[in-house]
What we know:
Layout: H1 3-36, E1 39-51, E2 56-58, E3 64-69, E4 76-77, E5 82-86, H2 89-117, H3 126-134, H4 138-203, H5 209-284, E6 287-289, E7 294-297, E8 307-308, E9 315-319, E10 324-331, E11 343-347, E12 359-366, E13 371-372, E14 379-387, H6 389-393, E15 405-415, H7 417-432
Antiparallel strand pairs: 1-10, 1-15, 2-9, 3-5, 3-8, 4-7, 5-6, 7-9, 10-14, 11-12, 11-15, 12-14, 13-14
Helix pairs in contact: 2-4, 2-5, 4-5
Amino acid sequence: MRPAEIKSAWRARLPLAIGYVTLALLIGMVWVWGIQSRIAGAVVSSGVIEVETHRQVIQHPTGGVVGEILTRDGDRIEAGDVLIRLDDKLIRSELTVIENQLLEAMAHKARLVAERDGTDTITLPDDLQQLAAKTPDSASQIEGQQRLFEERSAALVTEKQLIAEQIAQIRNQITGTEAQLEALSEQNNLLSEELGNAQNLLNKKLVESSRVSRLKSETAGLTGQVGQLQAQVAQLNGEIAKLMIEKLKLQNQRREEAVENLRELAPQEVELAERRFSKLETLSRMDIRSPVSGIVYGSTVFALKSVIQPAEPIMYVIPMEHKLIVSARIDAASIDQVRVGQDVSLRFSAFNQRSTPEVRGHVTTVSADVFTDDATGKDYYEAIVAPEQDDLKTLGNKDIVPGMPVQVFVQTEERTPLSYLTKPLTDYFTKAFRES
């Protein structure tokens, strides 16, 4: 071969040799990278932002007619704020009727207690005074019972006075009868003495026997009259005793009537008190209040006089003071790679991906059983992810609100690039060499 040809061949082989060497070095470097480097895997899923305590549903147990709407969607409210005020005119009207009936029953009871205890005036208990202060017609009802008490007391006093007058008259009769009895007794004593003297004279034959007989007859008559007067005094004393018993019966009868009326009145008072308590409870629920602080959304009531059905959602309140979490759906086939405590990367698809950094987090909860999506029929597990609060601050003025979609990357174990390349092939052969 001529020198020129040798020189030309050498010039052709040199680039080729350099290419082979470069290719070998590249393949070697790729091989070393494939078996030495580590790439972190991830289970990719979708999720949404939620609050840790979930949204608060605003409902009413009995419903009613809307009287005033105080909040709208988007309003920020505090716990205890009134959201909607129901129309309470009917409840207040019914409450007024019940309170008037209860006040009358309590005033009636106070009068009966005074009659039972025999007091001179009616003592109003504290609960009656408190109710009377709230009831417009309380004065007339209490005054009516007071007048009735005074009239009944006056009637009782009059009846007692009549009995006392009858007793006084009988005692006057007794006094007169006793005076007659004393005179007859004195006269009888004198006749007895005269009869004794006459009997002595008769024994001496100094007087006739007819005189002694006449004196004996007069003495016997006086003795009979004394006995009649004594019986009359005893009868008059018996009448006084009867009148005294009748006087006691008047007081006892009044007391027994009061006790019986109190017994009959007690169930009525209890029923009215329970009805009043029920109406007050219903009235206290006329103001629908928020149990938590947050933002109102999802209102279903927009007009006055509209009807709220019992237990139907009226609106929702998103608590803002609670931590935000991410609810992620993990494919059932990948659940073996997800566990509590794993690191997670979160990407907010609603923001610009170039200017929005990833937010770190970790898995806090994994559901114990599988769920099924009603729309797609696909099985999934629910995983709760807690974002790092420091990373959330890096988002700046970007507001994260419940319901915002999130891409969730649950980091799994590190593997070599070569294992990623060969795994599909090894999985295929693992299945291919098994008998069907």
